[in-house]
Amino acid sequence: MLVQNDSPNHLLEKALSLFMRYGIRSVTMDDVAREAGMSKKTIYQQCGDRNGLVMATVRYMTASVSDKCQHISVTHNNPIDQLLEIGRYFHDLTRQINPNLFYEMSKYFPEAWTLLRKHRMEFVEDQVSANIEKGIEQGIYRDNFNKKIVIRLYLSLIDLILDEETFPKSVFTFKELHREIILYHLHAIVTPKGLKYLHTKQIIQ
Predict the structure, then answer these.
(1) Which residues contact 133 (CB under 8 A, 6 or more apart)?
(2) pTM score, two decimals?
């Protein structure tokens, strides 16, 4: 029995849930239609082919991530708290993702992969830049470093988490990798005031 819900967000939410659990290639259009409670014809009308569905799902996911990170930034005034809370969010999110998802996307859906990487680079760069500026204003980050270089270093480290050759999942968990990267980043830029505050925090427990 089909559920009478043909909204694009409903479809993309269900497709994203399936992709995160099982990867992309093992999920059929029939699976998506069944999960969303709508016909395949409706899915094709909304998204076109399978590649279009994957692209639309990536856009939906990046928009959701952006909204969540912006909400965290607004509700946490301290930049260290912002960074740690966003780290917890990504840790929880990554725990729900099938390890094959990003590999399959990069190999079989390059357009969607390019879109995801572009968003991640641009959005994370903006977020980290704003975080640094706020930390400098509050006196918890130093002001005598090259912000562009530090931002790029942070982005490179985040990218490195997904490098299976450097950090095989059989040896390192995303949780411990992300924790060390955040601590590495913060210890490089905090002032004594910021370091004192950092030592009072639980880092992605």
Answers:
(1) 147
(2) 0.81
